Amino acid sequence: MEAALNKNMKILIVDDFSTMRRIIKNLLRDLGYTNTHEADDGSSALPVLKGSDFDFLITDWNMPGMTGIELLKAVRADDKLRTLPVLMVTAEAKREQIIEAAQAGVNGYVVKPFTAQALKEKIEKIFERVEA
Amino acid sequence: MSTSDSSQLEAELVTQAKELLTQLESGHSVEAMKTISSLHLTREQFLFQEVGKLTRSLHDAIKNFHMDTTLDLGDVTELSRMEDASDRLNYVITMTERAANRTMDMVEDTMPLSNQLGERARRIKPEWERLMRRQMSPEEFRNLYKDVLAFLDSTNDDASKIESNLSNILLAQDFQDLTGQVIKKVITLVREVESNLVHLVRMAATVDQIAGFKHELAPAPSECPLGPEGPIVNPEKRTDVVNGQDEVDALLSSLGF
Q1: Which of A22, A95, A118 minimises the CB distance to B242?
Q2: What is A11-126's CATH topology?
């Protein structure tokens, strides 16, 4: 496995709202991560993940085609993608939703609206775990 | 059914029922049979009357909202109010997206300017400090005062640009007024639809009553819907949601995640 918190890691940002993708992309860039790519739905994200070597997936929950939770489950069920670190960034704040995501194997959960600090902390936490 | 209608129906039925009783008790069976037919007829008439009122109300509701139907209900060239509401909400999405992108454009333009200001100040400061300690040669001093002049000019330019960008960011917030107005209209429409539906349900209940129908009503959806809901707009009223990132973290660590 490549070095964990590598500033050049390939990140896929998945959200059906382009403004949110832009915000996350900019925040990542401010943190030094410039190797970012985007998808507007779980259904278009999955083949992109399978066809390339991503180091990190950041996804929303509510998307019209394939939701974030479905994408997460598909990723965990795929041999190649099983260990891909996944961060959910979502407005879903119901306890049962959060628990479902955790049980499906999400590595971090950020609720909207979020701060740059929260995003940074969660990313660092995920990769410090991966390293360990 | 209005109380006058229902009491009218009841009064009619009572009159006829009393007649029926009298006729049966006095052995006038032919007349009694006729009275039974009359009773049926009375009920039918009221039933048809109420059904007529119900259909009329439905027509009115459909016309009122200019719904898109294939029936010729008059001027269907006018946009259905449902479609109108959809268009309005799409307009809100478009406006807010545009405002967000415009604001982010301004931010992306301003960040490097701000960085550059800091950068230049950081470069000049140690030179100025050397000057203050009298550790500078005349040659270096000549370069320094040119640098400082350039710094003052570029700072002035950058400050103007930044102010202009900030002003544009302020202006970009004008979407809120426009989207607010549009959303208020949609709220009005939604309330009208609800009110119309309630009215229709009341009329239908009357029809049921006269016809003697008893419907198996499906149970009302439970308070907390299952599945994803999007942003929670009234967290104070909910017991099944967490409030903020700290509570999310607390929930997850309490479960060992």
Answers
A1: A95
A2: Rossmann fold (3.40.50)
**DSSP 8-state secondary structure symbol assigned to residue B80:** P
Contact B130, B136 (CB under 8 A): yes
Interface with chain B: mutation pick from A98, A99, A100, A103, highest number of B CBs within 10 Å: A98
Domain spans of chain A, in order of start: 11-126
The string of pLDDT tens digits covering residues B143-175 is 999 999 999 999 999 999 999 999 999 999 988
pTM, full prediction: 0.73
Residues of B with CB below 8 A from A64's CB? none
Q: Would you call A63 helix, strand, or coil by DSSP? A: coil
**Which residues of A, range 85-104, sit inside 8 Å of B by Cβ?**
91-99, 102
Residues A54-108: tens digit of each pLDDT = 999 999 999 999 999 999 999 999 999 999 999 999 999 999 999 999 999 999 9
What is the ipTM metric for this complex?
0.79
Which of B167-175's residues contact partners 24+ apart within 8 Å by CB, and which partners?
B168/B102, B168/B106, B169/B103, B169/B106, B169/B107, B172/B99, B172/B102, B172/B103, B172/B106, B173/B99, B173/B103, B174/B99, B175/B95, B175/B96, B175/B98, B175/B99
| Tens-digit pLDDT profile for residues A20-41 | 999 999 999 999 999 999 999 9
